[in-house]
Amino acid sequence: MTNRTVLRPDGVSIAVTDLGGDGPVVVLLHGLAGSSRELLPTAQALPGYRVLLVDQRGHGASTRLPNDLSRDAFVGDVVAVLEELVPGQRAVLVGQSMGAHTAFLVAVARPDLIKGLVMLEGHVKGRDDPGEAAQLGTYFASWPVPFEDEVAAREFLGGDAIVDAWVADFELTDHGLVPRFDAAVMQRVIEAVHEPRWDEWQALTVPTLAGFAKHGMFGNDDREALIRRRCQTDRIDLDGGGHDAHLNAFDMWIDVLSRWLARERINGTHASGR
């Protein structure tokens, strides 16, 4: 396992964990307010692949306060990672939530670099209510940081699986524990994600799996809309888990992901959506 840094023209540094190996390349992209750390168990459950875990800008060990938080900037970061660290190889992009949105846009913009796309609890429909992003920013800004210790953090944040990931990723300072992201940055990032992207979705050409959790963010109408507008998309509904199914339905998630990757690796084809 090697820690790498990819420098971008705007001065942003992108932190990448490279698990090494010479198998097919898989790139993992975390969701909003997360980091690559929460996807390390997923990476370790994929033997035979060369897995890269990316801290997207504004998250984890990457630049925390970048000026450019556009979707194009996120796409450019992933393209730069691929071109610098695995030149000449096509990768499968695997993303959760906001990371799935990033992965999808990369696959649309640079299909020459991508041979497959897996979106866990991700969508392209955007949001009708602009206040949702503001509410999320307000929530993150309400955290009474720095937290004195993990106990204090858990007392405030609760017991969901994502809390374990947040706590594990906290930075220890002289004054206590602080998150590796900025609330205002998170709000700006999700505002961009909330723009509908149906035209890009219908232009997508690479084999794609859309995975949803039983108790996830998206109802059946939203799930069916993806397939209706791009009928060659594979759809898998997990029998459990919530929006963070990579954490709270791990075994189901790995089973689905491993099977799909193996099928693409063997025959390079994908079934019609269902």
UniProtKB/TrEMBL annotation:
UniProt-listed InterPro entries: AB_hydrolase_1 (IPR000073), AB_hydrolase_fold (IPR029058), AB_hydrolase_sf (IPR050266)
Keywords: Hydrolase
Domain AB hydrolase-1: from-to ranges: 24-127
Gene3D superfamilies, per database record: alpha/beta hydrolase
An MF annotation (GO) of this entry: hydrolase activity
PANTHER family for this protein: HYDROLASE, PUTATIVE (AFU_ORTHOLOGUE AFUA_2G14860)-RELATED, MONOACYLGLYCEROL LIPASE
Protein name per UniProt: Alpha/beta hydrolase
Organism, scientific name: Brachybacterium epidermidis
